[in-house]
Amino acid sequence: MLKKTFKLSQLILFICTLNFLFFNLPFCTFILENSNYKTLSGSILIASFMAMIILANYFVFYLFYSINFLFGRIITSLFFVINAVAVYFINTYSVIIDESMIGNIFNTNYAESSSFFALKLVLYLVLLGIIPSILIFKVKIQKVNLKLFFKNTGIALSLIIIIVIANANNILWIDKHSKVIGGLAMPWSYTVNIPRYLIHKNQENEKEILLPDATITNKEKSVVVLVIGESARSKNFSLYGYDKNTNPLLAKTDNLYHFKATSCATYTTAAVKCLLEHQNTNELYEILPNYLDRNNVAVIWRTTNWGEPPVHIDKYQKAEDLAPNCKDESCAYDEILLKDLKQEIVNAKQDKILIVLHTSTSHGPTYSKKYPKQFEVFKPVCNSVELAHCSNQELINAYDNTIVYTDYILHSIIGELEQLKDYKSAMIYVSDHGESLGEKNLYMHGVPMSIAPKEQYEIPFIVWVSENSKQLKPQEQVSQNHVFHSVLNFLSINTPFYNESLNIFK
Q: Closest Cα to residue 104, out of 117, 116, 119?
């Protein structure tokens, strides 16, 4: 085969066929499962999508090779390598490579991305990516004249137009499933969604829109500790009725309240932005820590996570900033965020204080590595990054242990605040989003909100207040949008845009 000289049309058709067979099985499976293949319209739809994938790739790849053979080989080889990695995650975690998932990829740090490493990923990369790429560079190709170029690209483009016209009756079905279809078609999923993400990200990085100045209405010493959870779903909190005791400490804590709540999104960057905004918007308005810092509130941000909007404060502290003064085993986990926390509050020069702790406690897939061993209450646990290889019970046990550890962290924060008798104190814990643990064969998070299962957006919203402090309104359902206005209320900060309906305190 390698000694044969191929016509360019033959090579491109061969590459497109391999691309279809290797990387578009999830795409085809979704269409088969969500269309009525027994009807004529359904059969046309299925055949059309399969043909469209091959023809669209043929048209684009032919253009690449017509520009320059070397350029074409590099681009198609790169597609095979990226496709191999993408389809591994699609098959292993049932993800969809849409714009939000691209955002997750760009906002994942090395520590978390390395936790996904598995032998199966290497096999996908070698067998489906590297070996085909070597073959693409080895084969010989006949030169193409201009007449043949227009003939072949014209035929491909004409067939694509015919397929589009033939599916005019299926436009509603296509519109309904467009996000999933677009997120599974290789290599179109990431080649389209990467530019979309970068364009939107660039828009976000424009100068933030400042909010009207605030007024602090009294001099009472007040502190709010806002804990942003990671991938915690309310379904697995015993406070919310879970049958396993994952909240042994919080269950015995006085002045503790919990509400039913939903997240704005199923991925960190969008959810945290929403949580910190005065209203849910696509604009880059001044977020809560920036706004309060500018209005003479002491603000401290500590994080073992990432993905928040730009934070413009002096005391922005990552785990590595806190590590030099933290020497015990707990410093390798989210407890590092509590190091000298009470002292930070006491040392603050302002009367009003906001502390944000952005945790990573329940982030997968390596749930069993997110907590110290003494918190491994439920056994056996899943230790594999390939979650489908674990039993459902092992996976849930590992995840539940992260909730037990979260319970301990929140209880520890409350214990610190209780010692500050001169302050009116509150702790607000809200997760960024939920998590799938094998339900409907889905794992982790990031499914588009329009089709996301409830496990990915039903989140815990837990509040503690100190004695002789503010009481809470009797309400059952809240959202992440309640955080901004509730913090303003607790800290006695008056603003023109304050929304009482989004405040949880009396």
A: 116
pLDDT band of 347, cuts 50, 70, 90: very high
How many CA atoms, within 13 angstroms, populate the side-chain half-sphere of residue 484? Answer: 24
Helix axes 146-166, 40-67, angle to 10 degrees: 160
Tell me the mean pLDDT in the region 55-61.
91
User: Residue type for 127, please?
Assistant: L
Average pLDDT over every residue of 143-153: 82
For residue 291, give both structure tokens: 């706004």
- How many other C-beta atoms lie within 10 A of the C-beta of residue 348? 18
Per DSSP, the chain holds a count of helices (H) and strands (E) of: 18, 14
Name which residue leads in pLDDT, 406 or 166: 406
Distance CA 118, CA 88 (A): 10
Rg of the Cα trace of the chain? 26
Q: Mean per-residue pLDDT for 455-465? A: 98
Q: Is the peptide bond before 380 cis (omega within 30 degrees of 0)?
A: yes
According to the model, what pLDDT value does residue 327 have?
Answer: 82
| 3-class secondary structure, 423 | coil
Enclosing H/E stretch for 426: strand 424-431
pLDDT band of 74, cuts 50, 70, 90: very high
| β-pair partners for 84 | none
Longest dimension (CA), the chain: 85
Residue 346's SS3 state is helix
Pull the structure tokens for residue 271.
Answer: 């959810």
Whether 203 has a pLDDT exceeding 90, the answer reads: no
DSSP structural state of residue 234: G
* Contact of 102 with 191, CB cutoff 8 Å: no
Q: Do 64 and 76 contact (CB within 8 A), yes or no?
A: yes
**CB–CB of 333/372 below 8 Å?**
yes
